[in-house]
Structures are given as structure tokens and as C-alpha cells.
Design brief:
two-stranded parallel sheet; 5-stranded mixed β-sheet
Length: 170
């Protein structure tokens, strides 16, 4: 899994984070980088999809932001946010609990009296972020066919060859 840190300047130094993979229990490169900076605001954190290699270090990152009072302007995800889709995206009890904890943290941090996360956008379709003049981040969520295929496989416990997609799903 990848973790991506974007930095830009539109009169003020800005930072955005896409995914946060913990490489090992003692190695979280995104968190280590953030600790080495003086940022007090993160423009956005984007969770691309709920696979462990993309969110395993996210909870630690959010805890650090909470402790250090680093404001997250937007938390976004491009995943289809249906509980069946999310839970079927991870394998094993530990990963399921990590994902549940992460979503609980996001809701808690956004709901505080003085929220650390100012805006939570759980999206499942194409979207764009206007980061600065001439800088637009565009991301795509899964299309309806992918969602239908994945959900049916997850619910039925079937394999690719067992699932038939209706033309209306495509």
C-alpha cells in the first residue's frame, strides 16, 4: 500500500495526506514525517479505500493530530460507505476492529465541541478538491458495477466465477 504526502504553497504552506500505511508496529512514515514538521493544519486526509495497507497507520495519525491540536480541514474517502462493503474489504478480526476504530475516531473527532476534523466527506463518486489556483486533485470512487460485484461476492462468499452481473449493474 502507498501513503502519499502532498505539499504546496498558495501563500501559506499546505499539506495533504492520501492514505497512511504503517510499515511495522514501530514504523509509520506519514506520522514520522508530520512529527518532523511545524504544520498546525492539514488541508485534507484522504482514505482511498479500506484495505489494511492503506489505513493501518491512520488511527495513530489521527491520535497524534488530536494530541497536538493539528486541525484537519477535511477527511475524505473515495470508498463506497456501506457497512457491508467496508467490512467485506478487510480480512480477519484484527483488521475489522482497526477499521471500526478508525471510523469511530473520525466521527468522534468531527463531533467534538472544538473539532479536530472540521469536515467529513464520505464520498463514493467522482470528486475534485480545489487545493489552490490551478491545483485540482481529482479522485474516483468505485463505479456501480464494481460495487455490485464486490458486495455480491462479499455477501455470498463467492468467487469471481460465481458472480454474474446483470446489465443493469454495469
Amino acid at each position: 500500500g502507498d501513503s502519499i504526502i502532498l505539499e504546496w504553497n498558495d501563500g501559506v504552506d499546505q499539506i495533504g495526506i492520501i492514505d497512511c500505511n504503517e510499515k511495522s508496529p514501530t514504523q509509520n512514515p506519514v506520522l514520522e514525517f508530520l512529527k518532523s514538521t511545524t504544520y498546525k493544519r492539514i488541508n485534507f486526509i484522504l482514505l482511498s479505500h479500506p484495505h489494511t495497507d492503506h489505513f493501518s497507520g491512520m488511527s495513530q495519525l489521527l491520535e497524534y493530530c488530536d494530541k497536538e491540536k493539528i486541525i484537519i480541514e477535511r477527511f475524505l474517502t473515495t470508498s463506497f460507505n456501506d457497512i457491508r462493503f467496508l467490512l467485506a474489504s478487510v480480512t480477519g478480526h484484527v483488521a475489522t476492529k482497526q477499521l471500526e476504530k478508525l471510523y469511530y475516531q473520525i466521527v468522534q473527532m468531527a463531533g467534538q465541541k472544538r473539532p479536530i476534523i472540521e469536515d467529513v466527506l464520505l464520498v463514493s463518486t467522482s470528486s475534485k478538491l480545489d487545493l489552490a489556483d490551478g491545483i485540482i486533485l481529482e479522485f474516483l470512487g468505485p463505479n456501480q458495477r464494481e460495487i455490485a460485484l464486490f458486495t455480491r461476492k462479499a455477501l455470498a462468499g463467492s468467487t469471481d466465477t460465481d458472480v454474474k452481473i446483470n446489465k443493469s449493474d454495469a
